[in-house]
Each structure stands twice: as structure tokens, then as C-alpha cells.
User: Fold these one by one.
Assistant:
Number 1:
Amino acid sequence: MLNIALPKGRLGDQVYELLASVGYDCKSIYDENRKLVFENEANGVRYLLVKPSDVAIYVEHHAADVGIVGKDILMESNPDVYELLDLGLGKCRMCVAAKEDYVEDRDRPVRVATKFTNIAKEHYAALSRDIDIIKLNGSIELAPILGLSDVIVDIVESGNTIRENHLKILEEFLPISARFIVNKGSFEFKNEAIRTMAGRLSAAVQEREKREEA
Ligand code: PRP
């Protein structure tokens, strides 16, 4: 049995559809209930529905064998897991954004609001730019509007949140997509099952990319 940490929400739905299409379906996952564990013994899979930001924690600590998680979360938390595949789903990018009329004052540190404090620190360290970090947990776009920060470092997907809050993108510096990650011990002890799953996923991703290019 492979234990799969699946992120709850839109990305998780897309990833589940992909897994189901290559032989790992588990119909009961569509049941309307508050269950968090679903299994299909015949296919050898047990799905664990977890918060997207917790997927890597479950996999690193061996509560799950494999998981699907955004590159943003991997970069931020740097878990001790194998990253086997780029699934090409949930594509977005890490950006710096500010109010439309923002002008940088280079004589003082930039005040940066973000959920991704490590990514933001690394980004500005590479630019040799001093910053003051303000850690938030959501609705990041509010910070510059209210004067809590000068800029934000956050993910942008459609760009709607930025536009509708009258912000502008100053920099895009990290493309993001969903990754298939594996616990290091599981990769040793359930190697065949994991390689089979990764092989099927990889073939399906290549097929989809070919179709998209055509
Ligand atoms: C994320 C992110 C942006 C938004 C970007 O927030 O933090 O706010 O999505 O998407 P868009 O470019 O398509 O508008 P999320 O919806 O996860 O909510 P949060 O504010 O709780 O972080």
C-alpha cells in the first residue's frame, strides 16, 4: 500500500485526476463527507487529504510515502525528501509586487510582507538589499495597501488578486509548479511501487505536454 499525501483544494483535485487516469483511482474520494483517509486496496493506494503546506511534513516524517506539493513550499521549507517529478500542474510564479505608485527609497531597508520568509530573505540577500520582514499568513496583498509594508513577496497565478487590489508586479523571480516528492526510506523499501507510480505519472505528463504543444 502506498500512502499518498494529497493537498486539499484545486491542485489536489487536478493531481487526483492525474493519478486516477494512470491506474490509482479511489472512487470514495468523491464522497461528500469529512473523512481524511480514503483507500483502494485493489490499486494499492491510500490517500491522505492534508493542508497543502503540510504535505512535505507528512512525507519527510514518513507519515506518507509520497506526496504532491508546490515548488514554493519546497523552496521555503527545504524538507529532506526526494523530488522525483515536475507534474507541470498548478503553475504560477513567485513575485515582488507593490502599490501602483510605489517608488523605492534605497536609503532604508525594504519592508517586505510575505508568507514565504525564507524565499524572500534569499531573494534580497542575492541582491545585497537589506529588508525588514513582516510574516503574514494570508491576504498578503493588503499589507502595502494599508502601509504595513512597501512590497510583498507572494505567488501570482492569474494575476487577478494583484489587479483587483491595484498593485503592480515589480519582479517575477521563481517559476512554480507541483512536484512529486518521496520519503527517502519509502524509496528504498517500496522502490518498485514508487518507480511504477512515478513512471506512469511521467508518461502522462509528457503526453499532456505533447498535446498542449500540438
Ligand atoms: C494566493 C496568493 C495570492 C493569490 C494569487 O492566495 O497568496 O493572494 O492566491 O492568485 P491569483 O494571481 O490567481 O489572483 P490564496 O488564494 O492561497 O489565499 P491567501 O490569501 O489565504 O494566501
Number 2:
Amino acid sequence: MAVILDGRKVSKEIEEEIKAEVSACTKNGHRPPHLVAVLVGEDGASETYVTAKMKACDEVGFKSSMIRYDATVTEEIILAEVDRLNKEEGVDGYIVQLPLPAHISVEKIIDRIDTTKDVDGFTPANFGKIDQEHHSLLPATPMGIIELLKRYVIKTKGKHCVVVGKSHIVGMPMSILLAGPGDATVTLCHIHTKNLAAHTRQADIIIVAVGKPGLITGNMVKEGAVIVDVGTTRVADSSKKSGFALKGDVDFASVEPKASHITPVPGGVGPMTIASLIMNTMIAYKKRMNL
Ligand code: NAD
């Protein structure tokens, strides 16, 4: 039976560590760290993610604020909000929750974010430093995955890691982190990869971030592989109060018996992404306050 990589448990441990740090700072007379989330439109999943992020802030003693805009808001207004947050002294970090409505350019918004407040680690300047020893703010999901592997003492050095999905927020930075600081041999697969199974079958560690429930099945995985499932797709489920269930990209039933370690969905990577956001905000805060 595979060891479950329990992101919920590990994120709680991280939150306890940060809570103690925040408490020490405020006892010394400093203000608490402040994270702001900008939410545009009424996307159900985004709403859930932002609420969970705000809740985590409360739990560790951060100040948190949510700024909401209607889906019809103009790009100029969001850019002006970004400029305001960049200047606001009492804000240590902020996120603009993705996805944004189609008429707003994600690229333009991200380019404008002050790199010292970029706690999602999406700006080109922070992205460009991913493989540096003294990196700054790392993209939250890959950072959370590396932390989860570390806490379960899963080494990446010399391992063959296969990353499936090459998005700017997960797959691509994940592959750089693994090949760079992680010293792994990395294969990066995506929609145009021919014979995906031939690659995944060679992997010591598979990290899949695609958004296609059940894409990775037992026959695509070698015995003893470590499986990290980033996928979170809402699938209709009348047995749930919410009317939907969250499904990963891994067919858990057929993959788990072959894996040495595996993340569940939910409760694996998701909570670790939030923990990374909290860690990044703490890093940004300490730099801002010269602590
Ligand atoms: P995306 O939607 O931007 O891109 C998907 C990637 O998958 C692309 O690179 C594409 O080439 C690749 N792909 C599509 N079909 C494929 C196939 N059949 N075989 C191989 N590759 C294929 O990706 P994203 O924004 O990284 O999101 C991926 C999934 O991860 C989604 O389910 C998303 O909800 C989830 N996600 C979860 C977290 C978390 O914290 N748990 C964070 C970010 C994203």
C-alpha cells in the first residue's frame, strides 16, 4: 500500500510554524503580515480558493483583505488596483486570482505586479530566478510540492522525474525546480507528447498537472513510483452537498497499488499551495520590515 502524502497534515504543521513566527514578531511590537487577494467575477472555484487562502491567513495571525470586482470590470481598473497595491506600504503581498475574464490580459496584469509583493511567484523577474540558489518568491504550487516531498524525505537528486502539463503556473516552473535545485533528470510532457505512457513508465516521480480526470492509469506507472497529482477538476456528483466532487488527473484506484507514495485529491497538493502562499507572504513581510 502506498504512503499517502498528506498535504493537509503537512500544511497544518507549516501553519503552526508560521503562526509562532508571527506571534514572535507582533510580541516585539511589529504589525502582522498583510496579504491581499483580488477576485474578479464570480467563478465558483476561484471563490473557494480565495476563501481558503483568507482562512489560512486568519489561522496564522496574518491580516487578510479581499478586493472584489465585477466580471465586467475594465483592464484599466485592475491595472490601477495593481499600481495602488504596489505602493501601499501596509501590504506585504497580494494575489490576483486566476482565471481572469477573457477581456483582461493576464500577462499585462502579472507584468505590472511589484516583484517584492508577488507571493504567487508569477512575475517574469521571480520566474527567471527559479533555478538560482538565492531565489526570491517561488511559484506557490511547485514550491508546495517540493516542500511536501522534503517533509516525506523523498529525494529528487538523480531521480527521473516526469512532469505532465507545462503551464506557466505549475508544470513549467516545476520542471525547472526539479532539474535545477532538485538535481533530477526531467522529462516535461504535454498535449503534443507522443506516447505519454512510454515516458511516465520510466519515471521515479510523476507530477501531473493537466486537468483531465483519470489521465494517468495504473498501466502507465512503474512499481514503486512517487505520484503527485495536481489536477483538481470539478465533476458533477449528486451525493455531495455542493453537487460536485474534486477529481485529480490520476486514476487513484489503479495507480495507488503500484505507487510507493501518492497524493490524494483533495487533501494533497491543494493545501500545500496555500501553505506556500503563506510562506511567501512571510518571506515578503520579513524583507519589507527588515526582520
Ligand atoms: P493548464 O490548464 O494551463 O494547462 C494544462 C497542461 O496540460 C498544458 O500544458 C497541456 O499541454 C497539458 N495537457 C493537456 N492535455 C494533455 C494530455 N492529454 N496529455 C498530456 N498533457 C496534456 O494547466 P494548470 O493551470 O497547470 O492546471 C492543471 C490542473 O491543475 C487543473 O486541474 C487545475 O485546476 C489544477 N491546479 C491545481 C492547483 C492546486 O493547488 N491543487 C494549482 C494550480 C492548478
